[in-house]
Specification:
The structure holds three protein chains of three kinds. By secondary structure, chain B is mainly alpha-helical. In chain B, about 75% of the residues lie in helices and about 0% in strands. Chain B has a domain of about 100 residues. Chain C has two domains: about 230 residues, P-loop containing nucleotide triphosphate hydrolases (Rossmann fold), CATH 3.40.50; about 40 residues, no CATH class. Classes of the chains: A mainly alpha, B mainly alpha, C alpha/beta. The structure holds adenosine-5'-diphosphate (ADP) and magnesium ion.
Chain lengths: ~300, ~260, ~300
């Protein structure tokens, strides 16, 4: 007890501790082999890039994009739910929470750290997948352009005008910034799902329950707009209204993050739209995490 | 307990506060043309529950790409009814995807129509009727696609080609080609429109055709077909000899496709 | 981390005042009274033993002291701070009953993680981690995943993480339960060593004789209540008897002693005479050479 201490004194909010929790969470998830998912997605991307040589070049590009975004969407939402569901309930079941919370760690820091860890994992995973996807799409697109130009040359129609047209068309259907924007939107969506799962896991005590309820929330959040219209228009019963109202109030509207489809189509996603979508995602994340804290702070361990 | 009650209150307050914000973001998305109409509920039966749920879950383009590939397999099997129904599903799922409409129309107006025409086991009258039915089906598909994608050059070109090649109807073919060119199709299609106008033979059409082809000629597109039609037009429109540039096709024409 | 001066510190290390804890659990929500009106105080530098049968509320009391559970009534303080304040945990190290750690981390990473949570960084973190590995005898297993550790090793990791930030108070919940006698001996030696260094220790056990050599004071709990409390000697010594153990004493000497006792008269008398038996524990400690898991 003689060492002159250089350690930081206790403060009620410490980014350092949150970062410790977050990186620890990432290590934990990585060692739970969550990276297998990245392998599966990469495989989907590679298969989608080369599997259908018979269809038209544009369709080939579209298929590559469709399958990549489909896989990203599905797997990252699953990772978000499963990872979050595995964290807190597992800590409770294994009683590892006792040792962590008996250290000078406020409960909100514990929660924020866990969520941040999941988000770090989602973010870096998506970044990696975006790189793989961009590379494949670029290769594919270059191959298509060169084969199309070769075909033009065979027809003796390789005028600069035609070549420029082909390149232009392919760049619209190939790799665009809007596609990265769509990947960002998937990150936001997965993060919101993680925040919702975190909230669920604060009053559930089992992993399975968290995952199942998390999935139900995703379905409701995904179909929210549709369900709202459907119920309110077609049925007038009090309960239907009540239900749709409850869904609108308690679920995040996850369809707001579905911008991959227009991006695949070659539509440009303006920065302003991305900013707004990011804003609403932040609102969801902060909101659900705050509620999660209010539940968690009273949790008896 | 107090915190829990506070938590529930916060959740509800946030829920109520977020609805207008969500509506705002939704409106922004709509304004930027990034939101598609919801999938018609009528598709549920044709698609199957799984696919329908997946499509609702933001996986429309994935589900559509699978029905598209199934249509492609049916195409390889020459099962035209199946091709039609699967492509219909595909286009309904992603009506804003012009490629799907284009390919659906092409399957019907070209592949299906030609393949029936070649069937030896059918009587000529039936063959011809089936041929026409398939072509008209293709035309209908592409026109429906144009409702969802107004002035889409790809679809306009497909429409024009069906009129020109399959229905031998130069006027709508010319109109569609010219509209396509105006909306970003390759300049080549403007000349295609002009060629159709030449076939019509009415003075205003000829005049328009002449203007188009002369403009292309001046820009350096001096292909044999341009020269040939300019020659016809210059004679019919009585262009002064000094300004004439056209020339009839050489005796042994270059083999050029399309 | 001031130099410890046990008796000089006026604030007690721990106070528990009228603590009552009711659990409402299960579908029936039948309330379960786990701790009733419990009060005690631990002075700085003291080793305090909380003993009692399983289910009498020892762990519950400790969890309240660590803010893991909220008291239904009453309160606990740590060095004067309410145990609900997170800041009170700076000075406490806790070894839970049957500790369990993130099994994907190695022993070293585990200690490192807890050290960071306590605000340790850089060279100090590294030094403390290595010191704790050394202290708990886990250096040889530091790279292995905790998932593969034996129960005794987990207990030692638990001690390491509890001590990593040099706390002034150590709370140990059943530290010797399920641990072999060698490990148990070591833990008791460690407690004594820490006590020498001035660290206050609160320890629970349902094994009484294991506690008697380390505790200054004990509280005996039953059904959530404190039934007896005091200095160990006071509680267990039989005041009017004296034990005398002789080595290599010839029978004549023993006869002389008996005669002396008789001569003295009064109420003095020899109550028993025989050969002391070594305890099984001592036998075990003498005859086993293995000093711990995997060494
Ligand atoms: N989280 C809990 N929910 C409900 N009952 C509990 C909980 N924790 C402990 N108990 C009950 O409280 C009583 C005291 O438990 P505990 O403090 O663990 O005893 P000890 O540590 O002395 O063996 C027991 O009857 C136990 O079943
Ligand atoms: Mg206990």
């Amino acid at each position: 007890m003689s060492s002159a201490s250089t350690r930081s004194a206790y403060t009620s909010f410490s980014p350092g501790r949150i970062w410790t929790m977050a990186t620890h969470t990432v290590t934990q998830l990585i060692r739970m082999r969550i990276l297998v998912f990245m392998g599966i997605i990469s495989m989907v991307i590679v298969i989608a890039a080369f599997a259908f040589p018979a269809v038209s070049p544009e369709q080939q590009l579209k298929l590559l994009k469709d399958w990549t975004f489909g896989a990203l969407q599905v797997f990252f939402v699953i990772i978000a739910i499963a990872a979050t569901g595995l964290l807190i309930p597992r800590d409770l079941e294994d009683r590892t929470l006792y040792t962590t919370l008996s250290k000078p760690v406020p409960r909100y820091e514990y929660l924020i750290g866990k969520l941040l860890g999941v988000m770090l994992l989602l973010g870096s995973g998506l970044l990696l997948m975006d790189l793989v996807f961009s590379l494949m799409l670029y290769v594919k697109q270059s191959l298509i352009i060169s084969s199309q130009i070769a075909a033009l040359e065979k027809e003796q129609a390789a005028t600069p005008e035609n070549i420029a047209f082909i390149k232009d068309l392919n760049s619209r259907f190939g790799l665009t910034y809007s596609l990265h924007g769509a990947v960002w939107a998937i990150f936001l969506k997965a993060s919101v799902v993680a925040a919702v799962s975190l909230l669920i896991s604060c009053f559930a005590s089992s992993t399975l329950f968290t995952i199942l309820v998390g999935i139900a929330f995703v379905i409701a959040g995904q179909g929210q707009a549709l369900l709202r219209e459907w119920f309110l228009d077609k049925m007038s019963g009090f309960w239907q209204k009540f239900l749709s109202g409850a869904i609108a109030v308690f679920c995040p509207d996850l369809t707001l993050f579905d911008i991959a489809e227009p991006a695949i189509r070659g539509e440009i996603i303006p920065l302003g739209v991305l900013t707004e979508v990011t804003g609403i995602a932040l609102l969801y994340i902060v909101g659900y995490t705050s509620v999660a804290y209010l539940f968690f702070v009273e949790k008896e361990l | 307990m107090k915190n829990k009650i506070l938590g529930v209150l916060l959740l509800v307050a946030m829920g109520v506060a977020k609805v207008p914000l969500e509506d705002r973001v939704a409106a922004t998305l709509k304004a930027a043309d990034l939101r598609d109409a919801p999938i018609p509920l009528s598709l549920q039966e044709a698609m199957g529950q799984m696919a329908f749920t997946a499509a609702l879950g933001g996986l429309r383009s994935l589900v559509a790409s699978i029905t598209y590939l199934r249509a492609y397999v049916a195409f390889e099997d020459r099962d035209w009814g199946r091709v039609d129904s699967l492509m219909t599903l595909t286009t309904r799922m992603q009506p804003r995807e012009a490629m799907y409409w284009d390919e659906a129309a092409w399957h019907m107006a070209y592949n299906a129509a030609t393949s029936t025409q070649q069937r030896e086991d059918l009587r000529a009258a039936i063959r011809n009727k089936d041929f026409r039915d398939y072509v008209l089906r293709g035309l209908k598909i592409v026109q429906e696609g144009l409702v969802y994608n107004p002035n889409n050059p790809k679809l306009l070109v497909r429409e024009a080609e069906i009129y020109r090649d399959r229905l031998k109807d130069p006027r709508p073919a010319a109109e569609a080609f010219l509209l396509a060119a105006k909306n970003g199709a390759k300049p080549f299609y403007e000349r295609m429109g002009a060629y159709e106008l030449v076939k019509l033979g009415e003075p205003p059409d000829l005049q328009q055709a002449y203007e188009i082809l002369k403009r292309h000629y001046d820009k350096g597109f001096r292909y044999p077909s341009v020269l040939r039609d300019l020659d016809i037009l210059e004679r019919k429109l009585n262009i002064p000899v000094g300004q004439r540039v056209g020339q009839p096709l050489p005796p042994s024409p270059q083999p050029r496709r399309k | 981390m001031d130099a410890p001066s046990p008796s000089a510190s006026p604030t007690p290390a721990v106070t528990v005042e009228n603590l009552t804890k009711v659990f409402k659990s299960g579908f029936t929500k039948k309330p379960l009274l786990a701790v009733k009106q419990l009060s005690f105080e631990v002075k700085a530098g003291e080793v305090y033993g909380l003993i009692g049968p399983n289910g009498c509320g020892k762990s519950t009391t400790m969890k309240v002291m660590l803010g893991l559970l909220k008291a239904t009534q009453g309160r606990a303080t740590i060095f004067g701070r309410d145990s609900e304040e997170v800041a009170s945990r700076q000075d406490v190290g806790f070894l839970p009953e049957n500790p369990y750690f993130y099994k994907h981390l190695s022993g070293r990473e585990t200690l490192n993680f807890y050290g960071r949570l306590c605000g340790l960084r850089g060279a100090e973190l590294k030094d403390r981690t290595e010191a704790m590995l050394e202290l708990t005898g886990l250096t040889h297993a530091a790279e292995r995943r905790v998932g593969g550790y034996s129960k005794g090793m987990l207990q030692r990791v638990g001690l390491g993480q509890a001590l990593i930030h040099e706390p002034r108070l150590l709370i140990l919940d059943e530290p010797t339960a399920g641990v072999d006698p060698v490990g148990s001996r070591r833990i008791r030696d460690l407690i004594l060593e820490l006590k020498q260094r001035g660290i206050t220790i609160v320890v629970t056990s349902h094994l009484l004789e294991q506690m008697q050599e380390v505790c200054d004071r004990v509280g005996i709990m039953s059904n959530g209540r404190m039934v007896s409390e005091g200095k160990l000697e006071e509680l267990i010594s039989v005041e009017n008897q004296t034990e005398l153990i002789l080595q290599d004493a010839p029978p004549e000497l023993l006869a002389k002693i008996r005669a002396l006792v008789q001569e003295a008269g009064g109420k003095s008398q020899v109550v028993s005479e025989g050969k002391p038996r070594t305890t099984l524990e001592k036998l075990f400690l003498q005859s086993t050479t293995q000093t711990g898991d995997g060494e």
